[in-house]
Amino acid sequence: MPRPLGSRPCVPLLADARLHRVVVPALLLFTAFRAVTSLRSDSVTFDEPFHLVAGVNAWRNADYRLSPDHPPLGRMWAALPVLFMHYNWPGPDNEAWQDARTAQFAVEWLFELNDGQRLVVAGRYMMVVLLLATCLTVYATARTLFGPVAGLLALVLAALSPTLLAHGRLITTDMPITLGTALTLLTFSLLLRRAAWPRLLAAVLALAATSLAKFSWPLVVPALGVMAVWAVLGRRPIEVPTGQRSAARTAPHEPMRMLTRRRDRAALVLGVSLFLGLAVWAGIWTGYRWHVTILAPLTPDADPTAIAQLKRAKDVVINDWQIALRNPDGTPRPLAPFLQWVARTRLLPEGYLFGLARTLFLVGQHEAYLMGAYSDTGWRSYFPIAFALKTPLATQLLLAAGIVALVLRRARSRDPVLLAGLIVFAAIYGGYAINGRVNIGHRHLLPLYPVFFVLASACAVWLSHRVGRWLVGAAFVWLLGAQLWIHPHYLAYFNELSGGPSRGYRFLVDSNIDWGQDLLRLAAYARAHPAEPIKLAYFGSALPTKYLNCTALPSFFGFEPSAALTAGTYITSVTQLVGAYDVEVRPDFWSVRARQTFGQFAEIAAQRPPPDETPDRRKQREQIVQEYDALRPKRLIARLRDRQPDDRVGYSMLVYRLTDADVEELTRP
Questions:
Q1: Cα(353)–Cα(234) distance, rounded to whole angstroms?
Q2: Cα–Cα distance, 658 to 637 (Å, whole number)
Q3: Is residue 516 helix, strand or coil?
Q4: pLDDT in tens, 48-86
């Protein structure tokens, strides 16, 4: 019979507790060092302003109108250090605030009233804490399942993961949900082994925090259900405290009794499940500070101006509610009646329900880019391709080796309930991602990576063979080399299958490679080339002019001043270059007919207006000239796609040095 993994250490040294006491903290320090040094070199990325401003607003005002499509816990965690820093906050008469225009308000707050880079960096340090906690959770889970050697291997995989390093240091909800789901699965499995109060408290806190991390948290519930059923129907008894003190003072635990009958285990599991459900409900209310409404209530002495401002904000929220709950044809969305009933009965805070409705509304409306193709509905192949290209090949090989060890029963789990929970969660979450329409970033697979690392750690069984030790060791050396090579450009990591990060944008864009992280590097480039006028097409929410002197080409969020199409240094983010969110930059837009129309516009724009031009003709001509002026820089960007760049800033920005003749050629029909 095959020897199960953990019955005897494959490599005794790796199982030594003294080695773990040294290596585990060292790996965590190594991870923290790389995270901190890289986060300081990245400029503010696309989603960070929205999350940070929402977190500060929740602390300051107990108000949840800003970016409501995420629960508040992760944002409030990131905003904690900002509360102890000096910063300016707009007054209540700010129109963007009153109308809950999050993007505009966040840019004004971060970049016009404050030093946005300084505030965001402070918040990023808090996310590094969650990154380290995730690494520890991976270690504890693999150790629980397969023993100390596997725990160490899983920790190395997590510590050397470009994916975790990329998003574990940014202010988003991706790392909170990743930690929350991994910790929930681990603590619930431990609770189903020994139903002691400390373990119940740990499971309660983990699940309650997860429910406040991201609205995708219910995807972990089926896994918990499978674990609960397995604990009831399986043969393993559940330990419960007897409530009596041990006679021996040196006893490490209070006396326990074993629940061997299924009826007793079912009663316990049912009681625990109900308690966890109640804890989630109370946790959600606590996260919204037990406020029923999404807007902060007025104080008793509020003046008429404040009352009028609140009424205006309520009108905006009511309108947004109607948009989120109804289809374009006016029919209610599937969950709309249920959400409205829950809101009326006040079972959950309005902010939570509104955020959930907004999330369901936005999920089906994302444009997507994949390998030169564009879609409004996404592809089932998107996330498998993203995983294959964005995950180090060494990690993929170790994962395959771990799965083979489990299938062949060379490696056996010490906790089949936990293993079942991990596999079910991976299947449910992976299926949801593949069949969903939000194809905007590999980061949405982040909650699966702790599961992958744990399953990969089963490859420790192969260390019992010399060839296995060499192959596993070579894979980890390969992984270390790839990780050190990409530092500090973790967002842009692509493996060898894609040709590396310099070619990554040919396959995927957006947060996969280009999330606005290279403005600081562009500022350094501008200082090194002071004679070059920078004309920038930028994909991001930060204000580029707060980092360097530049003018604006068509960007995702417009900024001023607009660039004159003359000789200069044209720099474009790769997301703008491929036209992921701009139809008029895409190659298929510039058909023969479109080029002919553009040529006609050019002729009209070049002509002098006739002296007897009627008002209607003048208005028509001015409109054509305006459209021509808007299309001309987009025509240029579309043509740059086929031109070899002269330089590169990071991996997200391409540099083209153009003469007046080049500009004229690139903007021709």
A1: 37
A2: 12
A3: coil
A4: 999 999 999 999 999 999 999 899 999 999 999 999 999
CA neighbor of 457 nearest in space, from 135, 180, 177, 22 = 135
Instruction: Write out the DSSP string of 578-602.
Output: HTTT-GGGSGGGS-HHHHHHHHHHH
pTM of the predicted model as reported, rounded to 2 decimal places? 0.93
Helical segments of 380-506, H only? 382-390, 393-407, 416-435, 449-456, 466-486
Tokens of 255: 């006396």
- The pLDDT of residue 4 is 47
Which of 83, 73, 22, 67 is CA-nearest to residue 180? 73
Contact residues for 165 (Cβ-Cβ < 8 A; gap 6+):
31, 34, 35, 38, 131, 483, 490
For 291-352, what is the HEC assignment?
Answer: CCCCCCCCCCCCCHHHHHHHHHHHHHHHHHHHHHHECCCCCECCCHHHHHHHHHHCCCCHHH
The tally of CA atoms less than 13 A away on the side-chain side of residue 584 is 16
Distance (Å) of CA 461 to CA 73, 392, 403: 39, 21, 11
Minimal CA–CA distance to 154: which of 139, 165, 141?
A: 139
Q: Which residue's structure tokens are 């003294």?
A: 18
Q: Label residues 10-28 b or e (16+ Cβ within 10 Å = b).
A: beeebbeeeebeeebeebb
Distance CA 631, CA 348 (A): 48
Q: CB atoms < 10 A from the CB of 392, how many?
A: 25
Q: Return the beta strands (E) in 11-105 as ranges.
A: none
647 phi, psi to nearest 5 deg: -160, 180
Phi then psi dihedrals of residue 326, to 5 deg: -125, 150
Residue type, 337: P
CB 50 within 8 A of CB 102: yes
Task: In whole angstroms, give the CA distance from residue 582 to residue 572.
Answer: 13
Structure tokens at 525: 């480039």
Q: Which two tokens stand for residue 501?
A: 């990060």
pLDDT in tens, 487-520: 999 999 999 999 999 999 999 999 999 999 999 9
* Region at 291 (left for phi over 0; alpha for psi -120 to 50; beta for the rest): beta
**Rounded distance between C-alpha atoms, residue 633 and residue 41, angstroms:** 30
HEC profile for 183-236? Answer: HHHHHHHHHCCECCHHHHHHHHHHHHHHHCCCCCHHHHHHHHHHHHHHHHHCCC
Predicted confidence (pLDDT) per residue in 539-554, tens digit: 999 999 999 999 999 9
Token pair of 127 as six digits? 């996310």
The C-alpha atoms of residue 265 and residue 639 are separated, in whole angstroms, by: 68
| Token pair of 509 as six digits | 């864009």
Task: Choose the weakest-confidence range: 1-5, 211-215, 346-350, 649-653.
Answer: 1-5
Q: What is the pLDDT of residues 225-270, one digit of tens each?
A: 999 999 999 889 998 987 666 555 545 556 778 888 999 999 999 9
Residue type, 589: F
Can you give the pLDDT at residue 644? 95
When pLDDT is averaged across residues 403-415 and rounded to a whole number, the result is 92
Structure tokens at 240: 């419960």
